[in-house]
Write a structure and sequence with these properties.
Blueprint: H1 3-24, H2 29-36, H3 42-60, E1 64-66, H4 80-103, H5 110-125, H6 133-166, H7 171-197, H8 199-203, H9 208-233, H10 241-284, E2 290-292, H11 295-323, H12 329-348, H13 355-368, H14 377-409
Antiparallel strand pairs: 1-2
Amino acid sequence: MDLYDLFFYLSLFAGFMMAFNLGANDVANSMATAVGAKAITIRQAIFIASILNFVGAVFLGSQVTATISKGIIDASNIEPRLLLIGMFSALLAAGIWVLIATFTALPVSSTHSIVGAMLGIGLVAGGTDVINWFVILGIVLSWIISPFFAATISFLIFSHIRKFILKKTHFIRQTRFWAPIWLAFTIILILASFLYKTPYGKDLKLSNLESLGIIIFSALTVWMLGRYFFNRLLRNAEKNAESVEDAFKHLQLITSCYVAVSQGANDVANAIGPVAAIYLLSKSHTLSATAEVPLSILILGGLGIACGIAVLGHKVMGTVGEKITALNNTRGFSVDFGAATTVLFASNLGLPVSTTHAAIGGIVGVGLARGFSSINFGVLGRIVMYWVATVPITAITSIVLFTVLKWIFY
């Protein structure tokens, strides 16, 4: 077995570990608000998220993925064997950091973990010239943009729900009117994400006008069905806030499931991107901008994510769903909608947005709508510290691992 084959088999293990950690930390956010709002139990959340993330990773995850994660380095100036060791070191370093964060029950970004690790490899293997500093700038900006954007949207949505439903005298009637509208907006978000973001949606090769027509027709259909559903649901409802929360529980479950599928589809690349690069290097000893990823590697990533959610997902779910601010179904729906909207728009603008940062931003936005005293700034401060530490820590870890492995194998 030569060096390339050895590192390919080692990368399968490291890729599974990274996917496991991604499921335990990053992906657990998709169901955290539903757990915090008591829409579902942690056990139900783990079951649902495991299945949906696996489906998203295997059936909607791109089989053509960027091999140099997020374009952080120019690999053409790095010798292939050094790059092989470097990609493996980056994968291992990112996985170790996300695992440490998971055991401390704090959410970090797997995207930024991989970027930090690749930055370290670029610096030690090729010098500053191989680093794409514009990407680094985009990462730094995303720390600010994504949580604030998600916080703003979630703040506005919850403020609308509170003003036009919760504070109205006839709040049951208002819920019947507004819940179908928010359901329609949710479907617009999901379809727009599918048609404009996923590989399957792009493969349909629909024009923007055709896609818009499908989205509008579907939203109107769902709105009419929603009116019928919520009228039946609330027909004999007691005139208290619990009836409103029960109605929004159904909306929150839809948005949480959407976020779970979307994360599986999009975030699996963080685990298998470096594996795909090592696979390509082991086969051809060269590296192109993209690589065909075998279905078996996608399945490996999907299984890793599902196992991570099942084994350790409850830790981060507890922090995100319960320890930052108190959540109920109307607040949880606002958070999910704000985070999903942020990820959709930022991705289409080419911004390296983190789903984790968007979810936390949404929770803070909903908390602020109820006043500063409703937010646990101690927990929030520790989360932000981990965010800031992610890139330098993973960069340093990958440099250390690279130096040791280079000494052994090069």
